[in-house]
Amino acid sequence: MFNGILPEIIISIAALFFFVCALFDYKKIFPWAVGFGVAATLANLVSLHEQHSFFHGAFMVDGFSRFFSFLICASFLLACVIAGRLRQTDQEKIGEFFFFVAIGTLGLLIVTGATELLTLFIGLEISSYPLFIVASYRKGLGFQFESVAKYMVFGAVSMAFMLYGITYMYGAFGSTFFADIIPAIPNHLDDPMAILGVILFMAGLLYKLAAFPFHFWAPDVYAGAAVEVVAFIAALPKLAAVALLVRVSSMFMGMDGLVPVLTILSILSMTLGNLMALAQNELKRLLAYSAVSHAGYIMLGLLAPGEGGLQAALFYGAVYALMTLAAFLIAIEVAGDEHDIPLENLRGLWKRSPSLAIMLAVTFISLAGLPPMAGFTGKLFLIMSVWKAGYFWPVLAAVLNTLLGSFYYLRVIKISLVGGKEEEEPLVVPVYIRPLAVVLGLLILFLGLMPGSLLNLAGAAIASL
Q: Where are the domains of the chain?
């Protein structure tokens, strides 16, 4: 029975271990972090076919939760590798850093398996506060405090929205379990309390996804926090947000009036994110606005649940996490000890580190949604599912935004491949970075050319709901 929650147990043990390391000022934590990440990722394979409920049905281990648990644990592992030497974070806080990151990861694992509103809220709280803290772990003083304040304020407001929504939903439906709420929605379409509860609940989810109009925190937090912290913030919570949106999608799709709202928010997220990214000259801010646009693409899948849209959303969420972590792997090596990463710092990267330059090209071609990379395949599945569902304007917006986004992604690639000094000093990177870059680049290409395996896993996850 406990095989079903083996990943959660391993991450909990990791958090306790890092806590003890912080107490006794033990610094050689990086190999342990990688080891715990590998163990938690592999543990999901043991529990892949487990089907158990815990805490009187409030937490469910099924194919859906294990799919996202695997992705989150694998992303935790990659993010730990990216964090590595904590180049932009105070080394004195390395134990605390990994402790808070492990606790945040545990909270996200709870979110993916939650089948009840209060369990879900507890998971979100556990995942949020540690990230608020590590967002301030940056060498030097100044700007990070402004960014952390914005992160905490927006986070607190979104949690308040969600808690109010949960309160209203409990008052309207008399239960906090999704299995009781979702079938009852058609009978409450004229109930203001139920409608308001669902809207407030959805607002909290959109904050986690950094979708319009709850995206304002992302650019400042991405720019103000250390790169290794942003790698966690950019990838792991997004996976949990996708899991939650898909699990409760029938909740707000059952309310016809909310479908146009979701459509408009999806289009605005794509468009605003891309337009703002066009004006950026700093890599982390560019990736922040890029995240807003990708949230819009993921939301497209919710419009076509019967046409493979949810399956496509899962596929794209997984691919987005992979692309994001690959991008921040490059970012931290280029940044070094510098907090800001002007795009000009990428100039001549091809001469300094050909392997990283090639990986950057692969990653940003995929983020742009151009063939033959995984990002193209994911967007294609999303657009096809929405087209089959009969939505013309979202499809047109997605295609136009893909073209629009290509401008700034290809601009970054151009800067990295051309220019630079005649005699560039080679970029010194840890020995494990280059092979990891090759593996991630090949994985992005593989999922673009042969998406069947991941798509089938996503389909099986949806079928288990």
A: 2-463
